Input
Amino acid sequence: MIDPFGREISYLRVSVTDRCDFRCVYCMSEHMTFLPRAELLTLEELERLCAAFIRKGVKRLRITGGEPLVRRNVMWLLERLGARLGGGLDELTLTTNGSQLARFAQALFAAGVRRVNVSLDTQDAAKFRAITRWGDLSKVMVGIDAAQAAGLSVKINTVALRDVNELEIPGMLEWAHGRGMDLTLIETMPLGDIEQDRAEQYLPLSLVRARLAQRYTLEESDHRTGGPARYVRVAETGGRLGFITPLTHNFCESCNRVRVTCTGTLFMCLGQNDSADLRAALRASKDDGLLDAAIDEGIARKPKGHDFVIDRRRQAPALMRHMSLTGG
Ligand code: SAM
Ligand code: SF4
Output
């Protein structure tokens, strides 16, 4: 799959549910209305859809959500997808809030998953509860232990939040690196109505990086994981630190990915509204011809880049859909 700008699309992120057992302040409103079940792709439909993308050249597949591990029978899907590793698919990964990892870590490894990203913004239990509204830090910590014990390589994703966790970042870095985990920092993106002021949460990573550079030796690294993060090596800890900076730095020129929501909508860009309805194609026929054509038609419309801006006056989200729908 080659898009109009010559980029080869080899990375697919699939959201398997819009539901979650947390209500993170930058991601969801406290009173979310979730989709009716009939709107969601069934697990069989999700498998058919992923198989079509793998046939078309997707090598890396990331399962996300919402919280992917709260989708009933999600392991069925992961096992089926894992069976394609080596047969076209190179890597199957998962992004999770970690709350259910203790229960699933071994099964994930057995299915062929080798890397998981765990989202964790703080190590302070009270702050964790304030950020996630419903989360329990101790469960996530047990989940991380279980993941490492099962042989999964864990990367920690931390959203940098002004006045909330900005002072904790060096501590998070030393903790993560001390346990052999990479840490990636993410800027908040203006996605979905969250009943809060985004500009207030926004902490530019250029500032975080400059502060870290006063304390640590940050060595440029050409390490890539197929995602948008740019990495440095921290000389003092020997670990890797990634930065995902959609607002301060445009990462679009090397974008190799597309996303599918849990309703089968293909978004060619996280920061644009343009989409293609793959569910209609999936449900119209058992034959994959229509699905293949709908995917090709969508890829042919992949835009050059996003145009996220935080509108400080209106405080309106750049896009109305939540990250939990599209999958982070
Ligand atoms: N529930 C899983 C989790 O939290 O890892 C997977 C889905 S979550 C939407 C994926 C990632 O998106 C998380 O790391 C989360 O912190 C991030 N995220 C959610 N809303 C965001 C926003 N508005 N800006 C930046 N990152 C966001
Ligand atoms: Fe749930 Fe992940 Fe969104 Fe938090 S960031 S509310 S854990 S989907």
In short: Residues 20, 22-24, 27-28, 65-67, 97, 119, 324 surround iron/sulfur cluster (ligand 2) (CB under 6 Å). The first strand starts at residue 11 and ends at 15. The chain has one domain: 11-326. Residues 41 and 263 are 5 Å apart (CA to CA).
